[in-house]
Hints:
Low-confidence stretches: 1-6, 152-160
Oligomer: single chain
Largest sheet: 7 strands, antiparallel
Amino acid sequence: MEDGTASLTTCAKYSVTINRDVSDVFCFLTNPTNFLLWDRGLVGLRLLSGSGISVGTMVALQYRWWFWRLETTVEIVRLVPNEEAAISTRSGPLQGDLSYSLCSVNEGTQLTGMVKVRSAKIPIPAAILAWGVRRELKTNFARLKALLEAEIVGGAVRSR
């Protein structure tokens, strides 16, 4: 396209089992103050509307992804306590959607993330974008799992 937007669709899906109750995972996952702890590329965020997270809340995010610094605004479009959460891009170089679904399993919580990039205003081949999106989702879920399964004792982190 002439405006530099790549017409592409990239999807990634990844699941992980976290040894914590579904309510603990949902609360941690949807609390914006925790995003910087587990989202590897996120370097800053700011709530643009409201004081908490609810459907319609707008959040400004600053990412460092490979050698790009990306700024985007997302809106919370779905929030069902202990079941699902979803955001959709409202502005920025990558347009897409991110959804999380949670369900209780014997060992704790099954968390599934789905990313769909609808278009990109960065010069990157679709195959590399797809690989990068899958890699980030997997890496971020590993970080989230490690954080939620860790226990802080006397200032030190100890795995459960």
